[in-house]
C-alpha cells in the first residue's frame, strides 16, 4: 500500500479522503478503515498521523475552513465596490449550492452529528462561524454600514446554507441575496 498519493503527503491524503467521505456520507457512517482505503494508506500510517477519529475530524474541519475562507474571499475580492462586496457573499453561495456534490455546510453537518457530545468539534464549529461573522462585520464596516447589519447578513448566509441542503436547490442563495439587498438598502448603504 502506498503511503502517499502522488505528491501529496500522507497527512493530506488522509484528510482529503476523510473530507470526501464525511461530507458525502456523514461522519458517523464512516469508519477509519474506509478512510484508510480511500486514502490508500495503511491503518498504521493513518493512526501515526491521527491518534483518533476526533483528531481527524478536527483536521477535516480545518481544511473546510480554509476552503470556505479562500472561496468567499476570492469572490468578494473580485468586486471593487463595498456594497457589492456584501452581496458577493451570496453569489459565492449560489455557485457553491450549484455544485453536484453540495451537501450543506460541513460545519453545520458536523455540529448536528457530534456537537452536543464532542466539545472539540463544537468548539471548532463555533470558531469557524465566529470567523465568518467577523469577516462579514468587516465588510459592513468597509461599506459604512451599522454594526447591527453584520449579524443580520451572516444569519441570512447561514440559513441559506441549511435551506439549500434540505431543499436541494440553489434558490436559497437568490432569496438570501434579495433579503440582504433589502437590509443593505434599509441601512442606507
Distance between the termini: 58 Å
Shape: elongated
Main β-sheet: number of strands, strand sense, barrel status?
A: none
Strand content: under 5%
Question: Helix share of residues?
Answer: over 70%
The low-confidence parts are none
Helix and strand pattern:
HHHHHHHHH
What is the count of helical runs? 9
Q: Structural class per helix/strand content?
A: mainly alpha
Radius of gyration: 18 Å
Q: How many E-type strands?
A: 0
Mean pLDDT: 94
What does this 3D model show about the protein?
The protein is built from 9 helices and no strands. Helix 4 packs parallel to helix 7 and helix 8 runs antiparallel to helix 9 (171-186). The chain has helices spanning 10-25, 32-39, 43-49, 53-77, 82-97, 106-115, 119-143, 149-167, 171-186. The protein has 189 residues and is mainly α. 32% of the residues are buried. The termini are far apart. The model has no long low-confidence stretch (mean pLDDT 94). Residues 8-68 form the HTH tetR-type domain. This is TetR/AcrR family transcriptional regulator. Pfam families: TetR_N.
